[in-house]
Amino acid sequence: MTVVQIVFYVFAVAAVIGAIMCITQRNPIASAFWLVSVLMSLAGVFVLLQAQFIGVMQVLVYAGAIMVLFLFVIMLLDLGGKTSDRRGAPSWVLAVVVGGAITVSMAQLADYTPDQLAHEISGSTELNADVVLLEGQRLQEAIEARGVVGAIAEPLFGFYLIPFQITGLLLLTAVVGAVVLAKRRI
Amino acid sequence: MLLGPSLALSAVLFGIGVIGVLVRRNAIVIFMCVELMLNAVNLSFVALSQYHGVGGRVMVFFVMTVAAAEAAVGLAIMIAVFRHLESVDLKNINLLHG
Q1: In contact, A158 and B54? CB cutoff 8 Å
Q2: Cα pseudo-dihedral A140, A142, A144, A150, rounded to 10
Q3: What angle do CA A164, A170, A174 make, to 5 degrees?
Q4: What whole-number percentage of chain A has pLDDT above 90?
Q5: How open is the CA angle A106-B20-B80, to the nearest 5 degrees?
Q6: Is the pLDDT of residue A81 over 70?
Q7: Per-residue confidence (pLDDT) for residue B25, from 0 to 100
Q8: ipTM summary value
Q9: Which end of chain B is more exposed for a tag (fewer CB within 10 A), N or C?
Q10: What domains can be seen in chain B, in order of their start residue?
Q11: Nearest C-alpha of chain A: how many angstroms from B71?
Q12: Average pLDDT, stretch A79-93?
């Protein structure tokens, strides 16, 4: 097992423990802080997957901006967790069955390899990953040529320009909507 | 690198998020569980983008933007609900209950 794998499993265990604590804590503020720990662990995983810029964005946008917004609202509404908001046993059984089914069915991807991905894309079992997955190699070349930020920025402002503009419109709508909803009297 | 383990971690986090949405009644905690699920999906996007090109990483930015917009509007709705009902517990939000 290489160092990268060991660090990955440390972050993975931290993320899973944080997620379990997040959904079982009675106090919403404790839940929010456990969620911050999950987001930080995932930022570490993103760095290990060679997506350093996305890891930084995860810390800045998610753990920074979005979670601060959550904490502000929890404290503004004074949701101290005086009474438990957990549902009864039937809901737990249903939740564990549904969540467990989703987890078990998707966790079978644990031994998924790039070669399998290549086989599924090409439809033939002879071609291996190096021949089929050229886009991944192009991404590596772009990272070497333009750096981690440039490799994402170039398609974001080129091929994905229209979706990028639409997300700008979405954010504008969300800002206007949030102000209208939270204002007492317009 | 680490494709399979990343997808498995993503699956486990998504499942925990689903369980959280189903067992909690506090609307803000449910929002946090939805953020957890969005992050699990982001993880599989990033893991697959190593082999499938830069599109997955660009998509992660769009997911983050949508999550930010969702959090802003959702929390504003929660403040409006709290003003009416003095609570964000889902058992009190039952106007459509027959």
Answers
A1: no
A2: -130
A3: 145
A4: 38
A5: 130
A6: no
A7: 86
A8: 0.91
A9: C
A10: 3-86 (1.10.287.3510)
A11: 7
A12: 77
Instruction: Test A4 with B1 for CB contact under 8 angstroms.
Output: yes
Contact between residue B46 and residue A49 where contact means Cβ atoms under 8 Å apart:
yes
CB-based contact, A165 to chain B, within 8 Å: no
Residue B45 — pLDDT band, cuts 50, 70, 90? very high
Question: Inter-axis angle of helices B27-52 and A67-77, to 10 degrees?
Answer: 180
**Tokens representing A159?**
């091929």
pLDDT in tens, A94-120: 988 998 998 888 888 888 877 777 777
pLDDT value, residue A112: 81
**Angle, CA of B51, B55 and B58, to the nearest 5°:** 125
Mean pLDDT calculated for residue range A64-85: 83
Residues on chain B touching A184 (C-beta within 8 angstroms): 83
**Which has the closest alpha carbon to B17: A18, A66, A105, A11?**
A18
What sign has the CA pseudo-torsion A29, A35, A41, A44? negative
Pick from A70, A100, A129: which is nearest to B15 by CB? A100
pLDDT score for B59 = 92
Sign of CA dihedral A117, A121, A125, A128: negative
The residue type found at A137 is Q
Place of tokens 């930022």: A43
Average pLDDT over residues A144-154: 86
Facing residue for A142 by CB, picked from B35, B54, B62: B54
Q: What CATH class has A1-82?
A: mainly alpha
Domain ranges of chain A: 1-82, 90-132, 147-186
Task: Name the band, by pLDDT with cuts 50, 70 and 90, for residue A50.
Answer: confident
Beta-carbon neighbour count of residue B95 at 10 Å?
Answer: 7
